[in-house]
Amino acid sequence: MRIEHTEILIIGAGPSGSVAAGLLRKQGRQVMILEREQFPRFSIGESLLPQSMACIEAAGFLQDVIEAGFQYKNGAAFVRGSRATAFDFRDKFSPGWGTTFQVQRADFDHVLAQAATKAGADIRYRHQVIAVAVDGEQPAVDVISPEGETYRVSARFLLDASGFGRTLPRLLDLETPSEFPVRGAFFTHIEDRTVPGSFDRNKILITVHPTYQDVWFWTIPFSNGRCSLGVVAELSRLEQYPGSEAERLQALVAETPSLAGLLANAVWDTPVRKLTGYAANVKSLWGKGYALLGNAGEFLDPVFSSGVTIAVKSATLAADAIAREYAGEAVDWQRDYADPLRRGVDTFRSFVESWYAGGFQDVIFHERQSPDIRRMISAILAGYAWDLNNPYVAEPRRLKTLEQLCAAG
Ligand SMILES: Cc1cc2nc3c(=O)[nH]c(=O)nc-3n(C[C@H](O)[C@H](O)[C@H](O)COP(=O)(O)OP(=O)(O)OC[C@H]3O[C@@H](n4cnc5c(N)ncnc54)[C@H](O)[C@@H]3O)c2cc1C
Asked: What pLDDT is stored for residue 222 in this prediction?
């Protein structure tokens, strides 16, 4: 079998893979990305958080993203029954970016991957990793090329950025179940035809189902007059509705008066897709010669749009650790990569759990709110889940106390 070698090998050219490639090219490393699809290709995860902009900027991709003309985003709006609230991410506790974009991921991922190529990464589309060996001197993978040839690539370091493909977790038996119940999502793109002024296109809209507080919809406007629409619920709930995925999504929207009203003139012109059981976890985020980035590690839940932010944050932490290894420093991947990454993931985890239990919904829809606490929450919703100066990051227990205060009136 033909064998090639590279310094850094990355599996997958999604946001975590491309941003890692940009950062590592800046360090002067030789980078190869193996991507099983041809780009542009569809992906879900269209609402970014401002924290991700710092990682995109650090990778050298900011100009490319700005020039792509995506929908500007400055916050998140929430509706439950007759109550509505909106967070403006520019008004937040943590310093840093307060705005970002809502993106069609086919285009966004393509922009990042092209920027990585421009930076000197060797991206090979339609090359799929099918086997991995991490017990030798250096990690190596077996790859199938578009022509059907199998070849091997060894590397000094291997980054698994394969997202829901979860290549290393599957091949190295690293998978552990998520502690979240099995939920699913039905989603599509529509021409929304909303009445001007009825919809703040600069924000993602999260709408809670009127009967089931753990069922919610996303409406993510794009810059071309269209938007992404999806519903998330436990699988058992979704299965209660008869018909096709499109009919079920439409039935759930019809039951939700504010959303049904907003989308009354919408044109449903795109097939509805379904994803289930996407929450995932692993025993370890690293091993000898490799680390797992983004969704290849853990995926929590879509409610706070944290996926891409966690993905690109993991890329920056891993690239920093690799830089230190090349500088001859001793890197402890648990202490220097996995633990810092998990800190932010755990912040999101406590907010996700609280959302589905209803407590966080009571907090954000509460009539009397402290502006300071709102800014702290706004910072976390903007993705600043790693800022230990924020009391709700440093002490996640505080959220419980806040929930109790709100529940008490
Ligand atoms: C219903 C739902 C809604 C979501 N909404 C949002 C949102 O609004 N905002 C947000 O930030 N996140 C959202 N997410 C999460 C988001 O989709 C992911 O977190 C994000 O795409 C992760 O990026 P990544 O780079 O880790 O992986 P991916 O974007 O999945 O990229 C992985 C790449 O690896 C390639 N690959 C896979 N296996 C192989 C292989 N064996 N060989 C070679 N290449 C391979 C794939 O083709 C893919 O291109 C949502 C997720 C779900 C399920």
From this structure: 98
- Confidence (pLDDT) at 6: 98
Question: Exposure of 145 by Cβ count < 10 A (0-12 exposed, 13-18 middle, 19+ buried)?
Answer: middle
pLDDT tens by residue, 169-206: 999 999 998 888 899 999 999 999 999 888 999 999 99
Bridge partners, 341 (sequence order): none
Q: Quick one: 305 and 268 in the same domain?
A: no
Local structure of residue 99 (DSSP, 8 states) = -
Ligand 1 atom index nearest CA of 312: 25
Q: Is residue 211 part of a domain?
A: yes
**Residues 320-372 pLDDT 10s:** 999 999 999 999 999 999 999 999 999 999 999 999 999 999 999 998 889 99
Judge if the beta carbon of residue 307 lies within 6 A of ligand 1: yes
Q: Probe ligand 1: pick from 234, 295, 298, max atoms within 8 Å of CB?
A: 295
CATH code, domain carrying 261: 3.30.9.100
Asked whether 297 lines ligand 1 (CB < 6 A), one says no
To the nearest 10 degrees (0 to 180), the angle between helices 339-357 and 371-381 is: 120
With a 6 Å cutoff on the Cβ, whether 305 touches ligand 1 is: yes
State which of 290, 314, 345 marks the end of a domain: 345
Neighbouring-strand partners of residue 3 = 152
| Rounded distance between C-alpha atoms, residue 157 and residue 288, angstroms | 9
* Minimum CA distance residue for ligand 1 atom 29: 14
- Ligand 1 center–CA 24 separation, angstroms: 20
Interval between CA 396 and ligand 1 midpoint (Å): 27
Mean pLDDT of successive 10-residue stretches along the chain, which has 409 residues = 97 98 98 98 97 98 98 98 97 98 98 98 98 96 98 98 96 92 95 93 98 97 97 95 96 98 97 92 96 95 96 98 97 98 96 96 93 97 98 93 87
| Shortest-distance atom of ligand 1 to CA 127 | 43
The DSSP element (H or E) to which 53 belongs, if any, is helix 51-58
Residue 179: per-residue pLDDT: 86
Say if 37 falls within a structural domain: yes
Pocket of ligand 1, candidates 10, 42, 43: which has the most ligand atoms within 8 Å of its Cβ, to mutate?
A: 43
Residue whose tokens read 């491309």: 18
Quick check: CB of 10 below 6 Å from ligand 1?
Answer: no
Clarify whether residues 36 and 159 are in a common domain: yes
- pTM > 0.90: yes
